[in-house]
Amino acid sequence: MITTNDINNLEEKARTIRKQVVNMIFEAGTGHPGGSLSCVDIITVLYFHQMRYNPLEPDAGDRDRFILSKGHAAPTLYATLAECGYFPVNELHSLRKMGSLLQGHPDITIPGIEVSTGSLGQGLSISSGIALAAKIDNNDSQVYTLLGDGECDEGQVWEAAILASHYKLDNLTAIVDRNGLQIDGPTEKVLSLEPIAGKWREFGWHVIEIDGNKIAEIIESFDEARRIKGKPTVIIAHTLKGKGVSFMEWICAFHGKGLNKDEMKIALQELEGD
Amino acid sequence: MESKSTRDAYGDALLKLGDNPSVVVLDADLSVSTQTNKFAVKYPLRFINVGCAEQNLMGVAAGLAIAGKIPFASTYAIFSMRAWEQIRNTIAHDKLSVKIAVSHAGLTNGPDGASHQSLEDLALIRVIPNMSVINPCDAVETMSAVISETSRKGPAYIRLNRAKTPVIFDDNYQFKFGEAVKLTEGADLAIFATGTMVHKALEASEILKKEKINARVINIHTIKPLDETTIIKTAKETGAVISVEEHSIFGGLGGAIAEILAEQYPVPMKIIGVRDVFGESGEYDELLEKFGLTTLNIVTSARDILRRKK
Fold first, then answer.
1. Across the interface, do A160 and B59 touch by the CB < 8 Å criterion?
2. Is the peptide bond before A195 cis (omega within 30 degrees of 0)?
3. Residue A123 and residue B60: Cα distance in Å, rounded?
């Protein structure tokens, strides 16, 4: 049973991750702050509450797996993996630097990263393959993948959506980070996705809609996904792009833009005082 | 001479591999054409039809490989190229053991026309780092190559053919990854051939022999990594080189050999292939004739190149 204390602890973890993300992108000089901040709470719940894994045994066959299909949110995943102990927190300073471990987008060479991503639209296919392998082997491990909402423009997402439903991959949970913005503007202006929940439902998925920045709702949705048998689950997580930093929230320009020193300082102050 | 298509041999090889629980076969709604249907009938739990969705085919295969399986992903050669970026960014970049086995390469899909033929795939796949490229010359070599690929880690592109072609090797033949195979002795010139063109190169060497021209025919089944040592040694010993492939003259076997020889041991060279045009509908043999992929063209090219040889 989840307690208020547990939720407070997870919120504190999320705050730590957000501060790391701001620092990392400031130090790197480039990156994707908006979509990294929107999904912090989701990734925090996955790694500090939901998933079964052991950083000391990263290749254990029965581990749950997470695939960051929206690979541009790499700073969030890196900060989380460091916090879990996959590599030293100190390594976070090297993001995007020449010769560093932490490539601009998730790379297979990084401890805890299951597969390289960054080219949009591919994570759901890859996750479906892993889920199929688990079914073949009667392995009860779970597969989670996080997609961007703009990413759902990619046709391959829907090829995979048909497959996961056809093969009844109830060990697969997709989360769509529905922050409403993509590079060129609001998703509904660039290429309308609505009714996005209806689309997934018609493709044969169990659909849950939540506030994706509310820890308790995220936890409940993962519990529900585990209970659903015979079909895959998608969680449409309504989030705020740039969440936690007032001048970035719902500002499209912060999709892919580094932070200057003043912006970094204000951001950290806000995150500290929240 | 016995004839059998390499796609048939692929289907048979998969059946032989069925006892290996790691082997999983995927197809994109072409299982009858690619011959993966034989495996599908016998091992339905390890056969995954993704429908006609090639990008997803490569992504799902990648996921299976990540989870420890040895996936064979099949479709037509040309349609696998629709997923080039998935192959590059996931399968090749992460060195996943996905075996991309594609049928109907080159002009063998004759009557279907240009849309279903593939004359550009070797160039497109060869340029990707970490990717291995295997183009077997007959059914025996295909069987051996497919089986041996299950014990080699990393991705491979295995290029197969629809048409029945002569079986060159006997059943004792063993495919050795990355090693060129000398089929005839000769020091007047070398003919490097791959896939369906190997038996035509052998026919050409017979005709040339009657003219007292001794051609060394070498079967290049592994186009990447290319057997550089053999290529340079052969260029030194023969002084003139012809390459033959059922592919564009750009970026395939000829391109690969030229890249090596231009830097390390330039000799007169002729690249036989399709000369920067699309295919069209027609019977397979008619198309080979039209595009100059014939025994006669190899013979004529051999005579020409000897005149250029110093």
1. yes
2. yes
3. 9
C-alpha to C-alpha distance for B201 and B218, rounded to whole angstroms:
9
Of residues B56, B65, B69, nearest to A125 (C-beta): B56
Cα separation, B32 vs A76, in Å, equals 45
Residue type, A38: S
User: Domain spanning B3-166: which CATH class is it, in words?
Assistant: alpha beta
| Cβ pairs A/B, distance under 8 A | 99
Q: What CA–CA distances, in Å, run from B125 to A33, B78, B96, B147?
A: 35, 11, 15, 21
Q: Which residue of A has its CA nearest to B70?
A: A133
Residue A258 near chain B (CB below 8 Å): no
Contact B90/A130, CB-based, under 8 Å? no
Provide the CATH number for the domain around residue A176: 3.40.50.970
Residue contact A122–B86, C-beta within 8 A: yes
Three-state secondary-structure class, residue A226: helix
Best probe of the B interface among A136, A158, A168, by most B CBs < 10 A, is: A136
Q: Which pLDDT band, with edges at 50, 70 and 90, does A274 fall under?
A: low
Provide the b/e sequence for A49-80 (b: ≥16 CB within 10 Å). Answer: bbbebeeeeeeeeebbbbbbbbbbbbbbbbbb
Domain B181-305 has CATH 3.50.50.60: no
pTM over 0.90: yes
Domain that holds residue A94: 4-273
Nearest-CA residue of chain B relative to A67? Answer: B63
ipTM topping 0.90: yes
Tokens 């790197």 sit at which residue?
Answer: A28
Q: For A23-67, how does the pLDDT look when each residue is reduced to its tens digit (9 = 90+)?
A: 999 999 999 999 999 999 999 999 999 999 999 999 999 999 999
Domain count, chain A: 1
Express each pLDDT in B92-140 by its tens digit.
Answer: 999 999 999 999 999 999 899 999 999 999 999 999 999 999 999 999 9
Intervals of CATH 3.40.50.920 along chain B:
181-305
How many CA atoms lie within 13 Å of B4's alpha carbon, on the beta-carbon side? 20
The alpha carbon of A253 is separated from its chain's Cα centroid by a whole number of angstroms, namely 20
